[in-house]
Amino acid sequence: MLHPLLKVMIKKPDLIVTHIGNYLDLFRAESMDVAGNAVRRLVAWVAVAITLSLFLVFTGVALMLGLLQNQFHWALVAVPAIPLLLAFIAWGMTRKPVLSAEVGEIKRQFMADIEAFHVAGEKDA
User: Fold this and answer.
1) Neighbouring residues of 73: CB distance < 8 A, sequence distance ≥ 6
2) Which residues 6+ apart lie within 8 Å of 58 measured at CB?
3) Do residues 31 and 99 lie in contact, with contact meaning Cβ atoms separated by under 8 Å?
4) Distance CA 45, CA 34 (A)
């Protein structure tokens, strides 16, 4: 007796080709999601670096102006605070995982196929 997978491969090879094509489509979709998430994280890290650099520059300028003028003005705190707030927002965006929960769909589908082949093999035996 032949295993059910071999029977299907012999009788209907187009089903196997379609099934493999569906796996490739699923893999492509999931890899595009992962690539998109990785690009978003990279952009967020660049934004963190730029905004923290701006924060340091604006803080230094504010300190120099405050000491030079020998008085305090609210703008000396507000101007450096804006890039710092943006840096915290961008840093929060970097904390999102690159691999989302949907990436495990290929593994779940593959395990379901293996289980179906085992069940079909037990029925045939």
Assistant:
1) 66
2) 79, 80, 83
3) no
4) 17
- Domain extents for the chain? 15-94
Q: What pLDDT, on a 0 to 100 scale, did the predictor assign at position 103?
A: 62
Give the whole-angstrom CA distance, residue 96 versus residue 44.
10
3-state SS of 97-124 is: CCCCHHHHHHHHHHHHHHHHHHHHHHHH
- N-to-C CA span, the chain: 8
What burial letters (b/e) apply to 103-118, b meaning 16+ CB within 10 Å? eeeeeeeeeeeeeeee
Look at residue 62 in the predicted model and tell me its pLDDT. Answer: 95
83 pLDDT exceeds 90?
A: yes
Q: CA 13 to CA 7: how far, in whole Å?
A: 9
Taking the C-alpha atoms of residue 82 and residue 85, their distance in angstroms, rounded to an integer, is 5
Confidence tier at 22 by pLDDT (50, 70, 90)? confident
